[in-house]
DNA sequence: TTGAAAGCGCTACCAC
DNA sequence: GTGGTAGCGCTTTCAA
């Protein structure tokens, strides 16, 4: 009875044994045929019978069983959390996935929202990924890296503000963005610089170092730096603009172009001239920033390409004993337009 | 020799047998303790020994082995392709992930870029997900659904323009967006309506039905509809604006707010008055659209909430025999501002 | 309260 | 060329 097929919903999932039975061969043969094992020659008629049987049953191999047998996976794990990401970043992710797939890896994005570092690392380790690529949404500790490696990960790669012990690190020091913005504003003769700090969750990983970067440049030069919290809402921006003159600022680095556009509009509506009274600069070089009047100055950030990163992953997997590479790859450059 | 621990990199991955050995108990006991199996009482000292041993070895259970044994997973598969998605969508995804995790599912985003429907369905089926949630980036056929169900998926849910046989469908008819935009423009007395069709890849899944929606309303009313291809670049918009008057349009539905902002700027720069000479409407109700002058009119789209969708998934998984639900849930509403 | 052992589906070694 | 079969790591039934 347990073998009686009924509704397709009830019929149990076909295994390679079912295929073998239907084709009248052994499971070994099925495996050889379906995997095109070159070490073994199977006659063409047999191959056909096997393929047809597989087709008829709708056979799909069981990844978990294969993994267990093989002792390793080709999973590259990409932990994600909730970060309101821009178009640059999502394009980068696609590019990366595509490049990794070409190298025959399976990219799995694993949502880790609401897990702390330890729990997250354990959850990832359960999947036995061959590599973990942490893009900075979740901060990894050296201990987490150790857990992952112990679970068989050949490579742990972090893309973030600092080097992590034991991991290949792509150090993207976000301070650089703040540094560039501040240098530019100083050069334009500004001396009292506001720095927008988004109130939205999850962005402090980026905003804090950027603020630090501004400070690092501005304060030694005798300029004042004032952090300005701002929620991404029209009302919040209007409220800020209303008390703007009281702040006595002559420039603002607005975290990124979206916040900059928001703030600039409110400033203009409040009668504050940009850039004459207050210079405004954003970051990310969004197309939309170019559409404003005055056109928005910005800090363009050079992202590493997905292709490049995929190659690094592959290299690290192939040579796990290799010395952790450490690249400093934050390139940031001011694009001056009309708002500064 | 094969058991001699050396560098941590070389030491083989600890299994529950290793934990058992170290704790001086059987593998069964280890399993009981680590899974808090309530059907079995284990003495407190034993529990402690087991936990300590696991901790010391850095033991992490092997998901594939557990899956194989259990015969099913708790994976909800979320296929993704490259679609340049907006902030609404990515927030929705986070929300969904979070809600699903609370229901004890493991959300796996699986990049399927460059796979056709059949190959993709097979690849997904290998993971034996308990549910597949196709958010419309990849069009599923009834056949694909069948493959997935045969591989044990209890629920296949699609969010897209049309119902898919065998799947629970959340029908989001994108035509609705075009319909609303067109109705509004007609109401404002416009009779020659341009419809921006993005040249970017992957967007036609959305743009085609939206265009159809405009036609559906405008043509019976005696208005003209003209598709206008546009790449998301400043130069392309400028070029289009330069030949705008030749098109003889008095209104344009610009696909979404981003394209609308781009085009509106170029139109204004070309001396075309908005809305007097040409009305412009977008879609998505982005914050940035409110910042333009004139403020951008838009079609606000009501997204289903992640919470709601997670509950639907859970319901479908618990009762796989249930009749496929079919919800029509595209709510779209015009937000009139100043550009129309 | 604990242990022995079967078996999930697959691949690869070895024998025929 | 093809088949038999061990064993990957885990959970769970049954026995002690």
Q: What would you report as the Rg of chain A, rounded to the nearest angstrom? A: 27 Å
Mean pLDDT of chain A: 90
CATH architectural designation of the largest domain in chain A: 3-Layer(aba) Sandwich
What is the number of helices of chain A?
Answer: 13
Structural class of chain A: alpha/beta
Helix and strand element order of chain A? HHHHEHEHEHEEHEHEHHEHEEHEE
Total strand count of chain A, please? 12
Our measurement of the CA-to-CA distance between the termini of chain A, rounded to an integer number of angstroms, reads 78 Å
**Oligomer status:** homodimer
Percent range for β-strand residues of chain A = 15-25%
The domain count of chain A comes to 3
The CATH homologous superfamily of the largest domain in chain A corresponds to: Response regulator
By CATH reckoning, the class of the largest domain in chain A would read: Alpha Beta
Side by side, the strands of the main sheet of chain A go 2-1-3-4-5-11
CATH topology of the largest domain in chain A: Rossmann fold
- Protein chain pair with the most extensive contact, residues per chain: A-B, 58 and 58 residues
Helix share, percent of chain A: 40-55%
Largest sheet of chain A: 6 strands, parallel
Instruction: Note poorly predicted spans of chain A.
Output: 1-10
Task: Provide a short characterization of the protein structure.
Two copies of one chain form a homodimer. By secondary structure, chain A is α/β, with parallel strands linked by helices.
């Amino acid at each position: 009875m347990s073998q009686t097929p009924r509704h397709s919903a009830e019929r149990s999932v076909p295994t390679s044994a079912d295929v073998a039975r239907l084709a009248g061969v052994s499971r070994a043969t099925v495996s050889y045929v379906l995997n095109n094992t070159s070490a073994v020659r199977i006659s063409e008629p047999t191959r056909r019978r096997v393929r047809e049987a597989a087709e008829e049953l709708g056979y799909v191999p069981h990844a978990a069983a294969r993994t267990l047998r093989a002792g390793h996976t080709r999973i590259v794990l990409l932990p994600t959390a909730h970060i309101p990401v821009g178009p640059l970043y999502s394009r980068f992710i696609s590019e990366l996935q595509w490049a990794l797939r070409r190298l025959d890896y399976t990219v799995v994005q694993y949502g880790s929202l609401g897990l702390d570092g330890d729990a997250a690392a354990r959850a990832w380790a359960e999947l036995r990924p061959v590599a973990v690529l942490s893009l900075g949404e979740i901060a990894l500790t050296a201990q987490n890296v150790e857990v992952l490696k112990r679970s068989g990960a050949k490579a742990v790669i972090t893309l973030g503000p600092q080097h992590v012990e034991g991991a290949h690190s792509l150090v993207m020091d976000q301070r650089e963005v703040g540094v560039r913005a501040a240098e530019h504003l100083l050069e334009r003769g500004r001396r009292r610089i506001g720095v927008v700090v988004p109130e939205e969750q999850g962005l402090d990983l980026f905003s804090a170092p950027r603020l630090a970067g501004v400070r690092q440049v501005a304060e030694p030069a005798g300029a004042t730096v004032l952090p300005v919290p701002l929620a991404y809402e029209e009302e919040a921006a209007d409220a800020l603009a209303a008390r703007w003159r009281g702040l006595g600022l002559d420039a603002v680095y607005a975290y990124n172009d979206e916040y900059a556009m928001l703030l600039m509009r409110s400033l203009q509506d409040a009668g504050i001239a940009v850039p004459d009274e207050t210079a405004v600069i954003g970051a990310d070089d969004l197309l939309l920033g170019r559409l404003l009047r005055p056109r928005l100055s910005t800090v363009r950030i050079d992202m590493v390409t997905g292709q490049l990163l995929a190659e690094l992953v592959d290299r690290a997997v192939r040579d796990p004993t290799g010395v952790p590479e450490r690249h400093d790859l934050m390139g940031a450059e001011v694009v001056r337009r009309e708002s500064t």
